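Q: Predict the assembly, please.
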Amino acid sequence: MTDPFSLTAMDIFRFATHIGLTHYLLLAALLFAIGLFGLLTRRGIIPALMCVELMLNAVNINLVAFNHYLPMPDHSGQLMAIFSIAVAAAEIAIGVALAFRVYRDRNTVNLDDLDHLKG
Amino acid sequence: MFDFALTHAWLIPLLPALAFLIIGLGTRQDKDTSAKIAITMSALSFLLALGVAGAVITRPVVMADPFVMKTLWAKVGDIELFMGVLVDPLTAMMLFVVTTVALLVQIYSVGYMAHDPGAGRFFAFLSLFASSMLGLVLSVNFMQMYAFWELVGLCSYLLIGFYYYKDSAREAAKKAFITTRIGDFGMLLGILLVQLTFGTLDFLELKALLPTYIWETGGGILTVIALLLFIGPIGKSGQFPLHVWLPDAMEGPTPVSALIHAATMVVAGVYLVGRAYFLFSALPVVLEVIAWVGGFTAIFAATIAITQRPFKRILAYSTISQLGYMMLALGVGSLTASMFHLMTHAFFKALLFLCAGAVIEAMHEEADIFKMGGLKERMPVTFRCMTIGVLAIAGVPPLAGFFSKDAILAAAAEVSTPLYILATVTAFLTAFYMARLLFVAFFGEVKPDCPAQETNAWMRWPLVVLAALSVVSGVWGHFAGFGEWVFHGPITEEHISWQIAGTSVALTLLAFFLAYEIYVAKRWSSYEISRRLGVLYTLSYNKYYIDEIYTVIRNTFVDKFGAVLYWFDLHIVDGIVNGLARFTGGLSGVLGLAENGQVQRYVTVFYCGAIALVAYSLVFAWLVLSVLGGAF
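A: Predicted assembly structure:
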């Protein structure tokens, strides 16, 4: 591991200009964190679902990036990503449909009010 | 012809069973059709039974070489259970008796049940009853016999409780079922022990295995087996102390009483002992028990019958007494005498009960004989049949009872004098109470408001047929050589011992004379006599308080023990369960706090958990690395 305190200005410059795996992973982590934050804090169903999408896409970025840096690229990461996108599409379709039903039924989409499964 | 009957003997129980199904599923509502179906099927089985009897008389079938047909019924592990028919002279005799009485009772019931809306149901049950008894008679092994034995018990329950809207009928049905169940349980234990000891339940196989077994290991366990098996007949055949259900079984319609008392239920016990006689007769101790139980029951019931007032109850105690006679005969080693008496008793007891039914119906359900009187003029045919029945049961020559009772007395005299004296006294008592019944009900003045008149033809003709059978069956059995067909061991020469027969006839006539003097000529007041006898009379009139004793036993032991168990159940068993439930409820209240229904809370917890796992694995990896050190 590199000691961060021994980095020179040159090292930082090179890091900022040469895009590598780390950049992709950082981006994915950032996206994931944003999504998680949104999921935990937003009170509407639709924003929450959007945040879930954000997290899923962060994972997709990871998959694709790792695939690119494989010693022998075989597109398995891309395949996984496409699967993941398809599943996400299905999930969002059902999620939104559920959200509509919940709204029709309860007249609200506020997650705080939807606590009928309270123990 | 006889061969056909023999190879189709399995049809004999099946036909009434078929009648039961057809009536029960189809024509229950239609009284006339139901009666026709039941009587047709009974008549067909009667013809087949006649054919089987013919096969016995022309002798392709003898006791030593029975006709057997069987098929696999069930297979459990290594145990194979068969069901089939076993025909030997004993079976043939029983088939003849059961089908005859069943057929006549069904014909009688057409008249008796003419105004009952439940007649269809009645005929269905009667058919099932006859069918179960016939199946029992034809059994090839103990298991089949036990199955039909229970069926007979069920039918008696259904028929005794036929008037289910009456409290007393329901109680009587339950009493009959539960009391006989006690006996059945002992019998079941006996059967299981037989299976464990011999590995088979088949009568013929057991008969073949038994001598070797006794030779090799002695009779210890066999005595236990035989005594357990004998508990079944004690319950079913109304032997002391399980006789209490029989008098109460009067609650059913009278044709049922006739069927139960004459042919289908109570003789099952006697028949069982007769069927397994190879086992019982090998064990002198058990025979002695049987003889004494039978002898005691005979005199015990006879002393009760003397003081009873209801028509049918007198007959019921008479049945118990006569069954005791049959058991006594088995106990003193005479299968022939017992089965002979079973046959003649079936005829004259059915006759007496059917007469009782006619009388009680004519009297508009009045059963007390002291409220009857002078029925001789009002019901001449019934009176004549009744007289024949009474003479037959009292043992007046040349009617049926004379021969069979004489055979039993002779057999008893050979073995044990006390038993002989017991049996002779019982014969005297029997003659006395039957004469009392006849004289009080049929002689004397006609009561002013007596509604009685002669019964209809449906009820009259079976009486006449049974009366004829009560007259001839004894003579026929004696001179045609009943003892050469149904016997165990060496054939006993049938001869009438003049000393024994003379004594019993003299006692019978004395009893008739006494009864005549008391109840017709009124030379002595019956009231005065009962007052003089004091405590004896009270005991007899109250049936020795056996029912009351049972009630006390039940109240003190069963109920108190039940109360203890109830407390245990309520506080300990329920306490544990309730405590567990309360504990679970409390726990769920605590855990339920976490389940607040907020999805986002769950997500938070989930991610915290994920982070904790990652942190843990990082720390663990760090530890591993620091241990490995330079190797990494």
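Chain B has a mean pLDDT of 84. The longest strand of chain B covers residues 67-76.
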